[in-house]
Amino acid sequence: MSDLDISLVKRARKGDEQAFYQLMLSHKQQLYRMALSYLKNEEDAIEAVQETTFRAFRGMKKLRKPAYFTTWLMRILLNYCHDEVKKNKRFIYNDELIHSLEGSSSHSLLEVEEAINHLEEKYRNVIILKYLQDLKIDEIAEILQCPQGTVKTWLRKALELLRQYFNEKEDGFHV
Q1: What is the CATH number of the domain that holds 166?
Q2: How does DSSP classify residue 131?
Q3: Structural domain range at position 61
Q4: Which end of the chain is more exposed for a tag (fewer CB within 10 A), N or C?
Q5: 33/75 same-domain check
Q6: Measured between alpha carbons, how far is 113 from 71 in angstroms, rounded to an integer?
Q7: 123 versus 88: which is more confidently predicted?
Q8: How many CB atoms are closer than 10 A to CB 61?
Q9: What whole-number distance in Å separates Cα of residue 31 and Cα of residue 52?
Q10: Are residues 79 and 39 in the same domain?
Q11: Contact between residue 27 and residue 9 where contact means Cβ atoms under 8 Å apart
């Protein structure tokens, strides 16, 4: 984060609404893309950005380290999107994820969605952040507030569980 951004965060924490507005303008595209990849609906993504903005504005004084504003903001959005996905029981995926599963080309997108819905939350999150947001491991670790090694382990385990799910399904077993 640049010195200018850190300055804006400090001003926003003190109640400067214009500084907060500038911060949100600089992050709105990133927030929108992330929300759209989770919710796969333009209206829902816009609502997610609006709710994230509201929650961030309301909780701005609680932010301890200005340098982590972006991470903090993404975490707010991630939590909101996760709640919405859970509430609506839906998951959005992309072709890159499907191709990362060995031999998955014969599986429908609905089957991939079903498999991903069976994953624990931590595994779903790393799949979304890696394959939908195209984030790097260190960025995912910051957002999820865990070590990079943990993110790598969760990602490897998530893909392994998805492969296992499809292998068992092909063998006539249903998880």
Answers
A1: 1.10.10.10
A2: I
A3: 3-88
A4: C
A5: yes
A6: 27
A7: 123
A8: 10
A9: 9
A10: yes
A11: no
175 within a domain of the structure (yes/no): no
Phi-psi region of 172 (alpha: psi -120 to 50; beta: other; left: phi over 0): left
Same domain assignment for residues 70 and 115: no
The position carrying tokens 């003190």 is 14
CA 90/CA 84 separation, integer angstroms: 9
- Residues 30 and 82 both lie in one domain: yes
Q: How far apart are CA 24 and CA 128, in angstroms?
A: 23
Which residue do the tokens 């819905």 mark? 117
Least-confidence region, from 37-41, 58-62, 90-94, 150-154: 90-94
- What are the tens digits of pLDDT across the range 110-165? 777 777 778 888 998 888 788 767 788 998 998 888 999 999 999 999 999 988 88
Domain count, the chain: 2
Q: What are phi and psi of 14, to 5 degrees?
A: -85, 5
Q: Which DSSP category does 100 fall into?
A: H
**Amino acid occupying residue 35:** A
